[in-house]
Amino acid sequence: MQSSILSYLLGADASSTNIENQVGEWECFLLPLGPTNDEQGEPPNEIEYQRMSNWPIIPFLCGVSLSDRWAAFEAILLNQRTKLVTYNATVSLLPYYQHLASDVVSSRVSTFAACIAGGDNNSNSNGMATPSNSSVNIRNDGYIQSIWDLRLVSWMLRDNATDTELEFSTFQEGFAHLAPQDELHSDMSAVMQGCISAKNSLQLVYKLYPIMNGQLVRGGLLDSLEVIEQPVQSILAQMECRGVGFFPHRLKRIEVQLESRLEELTTSAIQITKDPDFLLSSPQQVSSFLFDTLKLSMPAGLVAKNKTVHRSTSEEALKAIRSEMKSRTGSSPQIIDIILESRQLNKLLTTYIRPLPKVCRRNNNNNQANGASPKRSKKQPARIYPQWMQTATRTGRLSCRKPNLQQIPKKGAFGVDPREAFAADQGLCLFACDYSQKEVRILAHMSGDEALVSLFRGDPNIDIYKQMSSIIRNKPLDTITDQERAQFKQVTLAILYGMSPNQVAKKLSISKTNAQQMMTDFFRRFRRVKSWMDETKSNARKNAYVTTIAGRKRYLDDINSDDNSKRSQAERQAINTVIQGSAADLMKAAMINMTTNLTRWQDVSSRPRMLLQIHDEMILEVRFNENDIKDLKDIAIKSCCNDCERLFQLKVPLLLNCSAGMSWGAMRDL
User: Which pTM was predicted?
Assistant: First the structure.
């Protein structure tokens, strides 16, 4: 509907014929999930939905109570015998989870709800029992498995589709011949126009379901959708609805400190350049001072890379100039350090410190179903509600935006740690479970290299990168230096990401020859890894796609290109996708396992809740007591390690590091 009024249009297939061949007769009805007029034309006064008291009344006469309508909607969602089709399910489910968190939900299944859902719905196949206590808010933290999402399916069939190509308007234009012909007229009310528009959209999705689902089946992707991708939708909706605690005043204090430091840097720069108008933020002034006044020159490596001499003031160029001068003269101009620090602090300020307090808000709905006025407390954090995206990356990794909390840095310049502002609610703490060497373990499983597999099957307390360096260098383990460990860690990751020897040399500040030798030594020791990489590229050339551990496919258009550069890039993507894509599958499976296992938590009211998924870790909120933290750690190890090892039949064990703390920046290992 073209308004903020919350309502859902539901479709039903009245035909018993095969949906692959015929959609059948189609009927549609409106299920308003906001306040409407009753049969006497008066708005209802349902104390259970106090949060909606200021909502506009939907101009319909409705003899069914709002409670019964919500019960019907929930019965439909949790009925596993019903296939639900929608577009962008994560967003569609947000009102449902807000309803669970904010309204007094009855466990009663009304006659109306049973009729709409088509059967008894006192329990569901996820193993989530319907709570019996209707006097408290009911939180159903299990996932919903039966939602078929047009956007998600389209991404699985064509993972290189852009956001624009996945917009619903694209489907309306591309499948105009399937679109219904119900027209909008200017003499219709806004509500009627909204209803007809929503009905047309729903009917198009309904017609596209058998077509695109058939493509999934023929492409061997249906299992990946139903087992991994589909359940994650409702988990992300719960995370988005819950948000994460945030204390804006903590960043305000940091803002004052950083601005003071920036003033000091600006003063130093003016003194060095002897120019009162000098701006550290001006690339032109910085370039002029470095290359005209100081007569600095670009390092040979950067000049060769760019085929021409230029006056770049990028971070890469400045660090290269500083490194070359230190190696040649033992020192470098102070102004370079000032420029780099200034940029780092400015990035912190403009990307995190200033914007984040503007996007947080006080949640006045939670636990306010009884109509009580919300009480604000300095001890109770505000919350940030990021948007979680399942279809934004080709590897399948989840992404986060508005704001992107996956990029919040750890403690860095000037001792600033923006993560300190993210905290748990009163009486709770944050709990993080982070995979250790997940991608390297996936490489060992995929390649089947016996030497690599045996490393992970050994003592889990041994530093794996130090052990790899010991084996490759043929040196005793206790003689391996931190630098040698760091180098071989980078080499291993470079192989996973398809980096060239040139890139490795630059990252490690070593010669190309040394970088090439280290990569050669790696492949000589773990021979099966090289064979597997060659086989993966060969299969990619044959099939034009690669497959992750869960069966998801990425199509590589340039894998057989005559252009060497495009073909090489596609070959790197083939290796990278199998590793990173499988790592994404593993994380999603862990999230599903965690959600399932948490439904068995003894006290439903204190059940831990998932808040964030950051790279290789999940962050949850749990009651701050020793027993709950210990129980959650046991569930995390079972969900992320034992259950995933069994699901994917891994050849190597998975390792999980768990930590807890009152804020994200103060986590302590468990």
Answer: 0.87
